[in-house]
Amino acid sequence: MHRDDVRRITVLGSFTLADGSVAVPLGVDSRRLVAYLAVHPRPQERAALAADLFPGVAANAAARLLRDAVDAVDVPGLLTGTDDPDAPLALAADVEVDLAFAMALIRALPTISADAVTDTTALGADILPDWTAAWIAVERERFRQLRLHAVEERSLRLSAVGRYEDAVEMAQIAVTTAPSRESARRALIEAHLAQGDIAAAVAEYDQYQELLRSSVGGPTPSGLEGLFPPAPVWPVLRARRAMPRSAVQLPGIRSVRGAAGGTRRLVAGGSVPGTSR
Hints:
The structure is a single chain. Mean pLDDT is 82; it is low at 235-277. Helix content is 45%, strand content 11%. It folds into two domains: 7-94, Orthogonal Bundle (Arc Repressor Mutant, subunit A); 113-250, Serine Threonine Protein Phosphatase 5, Tetratricopeptide repeat (Alpha Horseshoe). The protein has helices at residues 28-39, 46-53, 59-71, 98-108, 134-160, 164-177, 182-195, 198-216, 234-239, and strands at residues 7-10, 16-19, 22-23, 79-80, 90-91, 96-97, 253-257, 263-267, 270-273.
């Protein structure tokens, strides 16, 4: 339940500004200003900020537009630096921004146990995907690369501890975000294979090849082929929705003998607990 005294800004998926439980409408220029400061958490020098927000506008006119945008933000205490016309501008330290939470999550994920249930919904959306300003495009792509790497790595770690459904769900975030990204497809295919759903893995590979055919005129060597059994086995795989992992030697997965005589399966560099033979 949201506290009534907290200001919140979202820039992932769409822009909103809320003062407690009340949505705050903003004019176009003020909305761009607040979004810019949400994406750039450090104090921003006014001249550079005005140039980014109003490209192609003369410096004096851009500075005036910026002042007007600041004055139109009718949320007391939302911005710092407003009392001095020459001071840098920033959001107040207590303003909650969903992008800041997502970035903190990306930094923390490598240290969070794969056994821990973690809410990663913040990693499912781009920064203001419908906005076309140049400054947005740069930050959007930077965040996209960071979150794609984070969810791919998390998927591998979830597979390694046997959380196969969660691993598939995590890898699907990456594929939905960047369908042509090979490492995202690899993570999803390996999650399906670790789960024992070879048919789903083959279907994912086929979809990727079809995407390559439609976008670049034909399939290109990707290294994903090496995840699968030799070609003669493929007709059997395509004919079945799923096969138990004991039925075939899973591609991309090998068994190694542990110190105690048991075995474990290795998937994409991570281990999945197996059973003793």
